[in-house]
Design a protein that fits this description.
The structure holds two protein chains of two kinds. Chain A is mainly alpha-helical. Chain A contains four helices and no strands. Helix content of chain B is 39%, strand content 15%. Classes of the chains: A mainly alpha, B alpha/beta.
């Protein structure tokens, strides 16, 4: 099987992938990452580690799909996953903005009700 | 203008962002106009996170003052006023700008199509028969474009789809209060109303010149505005406007 990547870059990619995995694990342990995102990043890290060790794997899938230059398959896959994830994040942000607006409106209405109930000492908040 | 003393509770929503110069006068004028027409009107001032004395000025006049915890933007502010009106049992809601360009004396004319049961949404238009303040050429071109877009997409013919001087009946308020758009809310919400089979009517009103500030839409910004509002309208038309969870969506009756 042809040498896809030089040996040194293989070591580097293994190290970086494992570092990503450890970093994600740390974030989960500290409760700073929600499970649905944690899962995604764990799978990404696992895939990176897999293909760092199993170099022929990339060649295998490239041959399967008729891609002549195996690394371009990797780029395509990575870019696809990144774009999908960015769209997902935009959806999440849109939802958060909507919910935040509703929340702010609720606060304004509750504040007005509260001030009506205690006309003498209005809360300064 | 029928002189019949309406028993309906009417909410006059006034969104205000840094309008200390005009807010008190506008509230007073609305109150006088409502009293003159024997309307049971509640004036709701939505202070949209103003950094000037808007809240203090509004607190000194007789109105319901809603203070947003931060600046929501015109869409969020109007949405809040409409939600308040809906939750507190108002049957009609009117939107009036805080800068004094909308004539409160025209409120009875504005709500008449609703009182007569002929419309769900009434637009107070400044162009119907060339009465009153006409604004700049660029602005009129933009408005003509938006009118054409609305007519082409929904078949609704109006002379000024961008007018913020509008009246809604309770059904229309229930429909729009939570999904009231953030950007270019007047035109976009007109598309939403039309798409959901609300009846839109238009009455002619005499508008005055803006008392404070200039229009923020000029030059290169105008091009961006046109692109963005077109996108907003098209999204509203194809129903891609974010609506929160599905159970929040109220359909027209």
């Amino acid at each position: 099987m042809t040498q896809l990547l030089p040996f040194r870059i293989q070591i580097l990619s293994v190290v970086v992938s494992i570092a990503l995995l450890l970093f994600v694990a740390r974030l989960i342990r500290k409760g700073r990452l929600r499970e649905e995102y944690a899962l995604l990043w764990l799978i990404s890290a696992a895939l990176l580690i897999l293909f760092s060790f199993w170099r022929e794997g990339l060649q295998f899938f490239a041959d399967l799909l008729g891609v002549y230059y195996p690394p371009s398959l990797m780029f395509m896959g990575a870019i696809f996953v990144i774009v999908v994830f960015l769209v997902h994040l935009s959806v999440v942000i849109s939802k958060l903005q909507y919910q935040q607006r509703i929340l702010a409106q609720e606060i304004a209405m509750m504040r007005a009700t509260l001030e009506k109930m205690t006309p003498q000492d209005t809360p300064s908040a | 203008m029928t002189p019949n003393p309406s028993p309906m509770k009417i909410a006059v929503v006034i969104p205000a962002f840094n309008e200390e110069a005009s807010i008190a006068a506008v509230v007073e004028e609305v109150r006088k106009s409502a009293a003159a027409a024997h309307l049971d009107a509640g004036i709701i001032v939505v202070n949209d996170g103003s950094t000037d004395a808007t809240a203090a000025r509004a607190a000194r006049v007789q109105c319901i003052l809603l203070n947003c915890p931060y600046n929501l933007g015109i869409g969020g502010a109007v949405s809040l006023g409409l939600s308040y009106a809906y939750q507190n049992g108002y049957e009609i809601a009117i939107q009036v700008d805080a800068d004094g360009q909308h004539p409160p004396s025209e409120i009875p004319a504005l709500i008449e199509p609703i009182l007569l049961g002929r419309a769900d949404v009434v637009i107070g238009s400044r162009f119907l028969s060339n009465v009153g303040y006409q604004s700049t050429l660029l602005r009129r071109l933009g408005i003509a474009y938006l009118n054409a877009l609305l007519r082409w997409l929904t078949g609704v013919r109006v002379a000024d789809s961008t007018s913020g001087f509008r009246a809604f009946n309770r059904n229309a308020v229930a429909f729009i209060k939570d999904i009231y758009p953030d950007d270019f809310p007047e035109t976009v919400s007109n598309v939403m109303f039309a798409r959901n089979h609300f009846r839109i009517a238009e009455v002619q009103v005499h508008m005055s010149q803006r008392t404070g500030g200039r229009s923020s839409i000029r030059g290169a910004k105008a091009v961006y505005y046109v692109l963005k509002v077109t996108l907003g309208i098209v999204f509203a038309f194809i129903g891609m406007k974010y609506r929160g969870d599905r159970h929040d969506t109220i359909t027209a009756v």
